[in-house]
């Protein structure tokens, strides 16, 4: 197993809460992590039909069999268990009793807020980070290799071919889960939608345009997007518009939680094709924004990540807010520095709000400028949030 950066936070929360819930996409390593780190915990998969049947038909009897120090995997398959766990942890008043994992947060969050409010810590485990791969002596010279190979642990643990692995991932998990969640009758219509979404990665969301291209209404598009977001397939980057009036764009952007899946959906079959793809810049944005998101989640923190754009076209690709401090990050898929990369950062500081840090993430060397702007390699972005 490749060691995960979230491990210290998992252990800390087990000291602070009777239950810790680990959410994340399918195959992101939730099961591997919890079983490897918590060797003294019993493991129960609720994907197993027999376990799920007993848990559903007689939850009290089921929980008597597993009454302490247990990992319940894919607990969204039996969400009613949470109300029974509430009574058990309240009786004992001790921390670290149970670990729950789940891959669909809408179902779980509703049950958690109803039954386990104040009783569980919540962590989000996304696929591997660049720093986790580096610590395991897995490094690529070019960002295109990271984009194509993606970050799912199994690709590296099993030495799988990325395009084939993500094709199987899509068909085995994504299609099945989505079909169950939205009662999908026409799979080809949804496949058209998600491929069009991949083709618009990092662009301002235009629900009506996407609806017209897919052949459904915008309400359906918004529903499908919410399902993909809740299933950790995509994440939404909201706009930052604090006190900036009507001139600020307020549509979100969407990115994928694994760039390997994104490449598969764009029909990219080799690293060479990544280098030639017209969306390479958007894909590079996805890579950097994703590293920021994973770093925040691995510390057990809210993302607090945004982008900025006004009606005049002034923009910053990524904003991070901590307290009153705002860090601006421009993202450029270039290895050579150009002074125009600073433009959005300087404009924001002068016209809207002074930036605590002004950074340009690109694929070149680190450069410190006298005006306070820093150019940093994309694989060092995580250090900004450490």
From TrEMBL:
Name of one Pfam family that matches: AAA_14
Coiled coil: none
Domain AAA: 18-133
Superkingdom assignment: Bacteria
Segment forming the signal sequence: none
Positions of the DUF4143 domain: 175-333
Name the record gives this protein: AAA family ATPase
């Amino acid at each position: 197993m490749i060691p995960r950066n979230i491990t210290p936070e998992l252990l800390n929360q087990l000291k602070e809460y009777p239950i810790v819930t680990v959410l994340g996409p399918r195959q992101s390593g939730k099961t591997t992590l919890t079983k490897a780190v918590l060797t003294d915990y019993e493991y129960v998969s609720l994907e197993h039909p027999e376990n799920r049947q007993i848990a559903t038909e007689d939850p009290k009897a089921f929980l008597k069999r597993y009454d302490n120090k247990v990992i319940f995997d894919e607990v969204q398959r039996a969400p009613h268990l949470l109300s029974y766990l509430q009574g058990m942890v309240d009786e004992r008043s001790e921390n670290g009793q149970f670990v729950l994992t789940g891959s669909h947060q809408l179902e779980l969050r509703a049950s958690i807020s109803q039954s386990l409010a104040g009783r569980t810590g919540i962590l989000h485990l996304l696929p591997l980070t660049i720093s986790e791969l580096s610590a395991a002596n897995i490094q690529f010279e070019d960002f295109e290799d990271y984009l194509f190979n993606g970050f799912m642990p199994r690709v590296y643990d099993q030495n799988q071919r990325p395009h084939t692995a993500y094709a199987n991932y899509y068909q085995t998990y994504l299609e099945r889960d989505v079909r169950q969640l939205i009662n999908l009758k026409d799979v080809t219509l949804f496949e058209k939608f998600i491929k069009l979404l991949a083709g618009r990665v990092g662009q301002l969301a235009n629900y009506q345009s996407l609806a017209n291209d897919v052949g459904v209404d915008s309400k359906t598009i918004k529903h499908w997007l919410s399902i993909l977001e809740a299933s950790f397939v995509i994440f939404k980057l909201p706009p930052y518009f604090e006190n900036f009036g009507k001139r600020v764009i307020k549509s979100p952007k969407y990115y994928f939680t694994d760039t390997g899946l994104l490449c598969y959906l764009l029909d990219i079959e080799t690293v060479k094709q990544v280098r030639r793809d017209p969306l390479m810049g958007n894909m590079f944005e996805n890579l950097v924004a994703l590293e920021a998101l994973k770093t925040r989640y691995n510390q057990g923190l809210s993302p607090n990540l945004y982008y900025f754009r006004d009606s005049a076209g002034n923009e910053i690709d990524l904003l991070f807010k901590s307290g009153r401090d705002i860090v601006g990050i421009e993202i450029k898929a270039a290895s050579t520095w150009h002074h125009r990369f600073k433009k959005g950062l300087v404009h924001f500081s002068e016209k809207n709000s002074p930036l605590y840090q002004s950074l340009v993430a690109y694929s070149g060397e680190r450069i410190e400028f006298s005006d306070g702007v820093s150019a940093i390699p994309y694989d060092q972005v995580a250090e900004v949030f450490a």
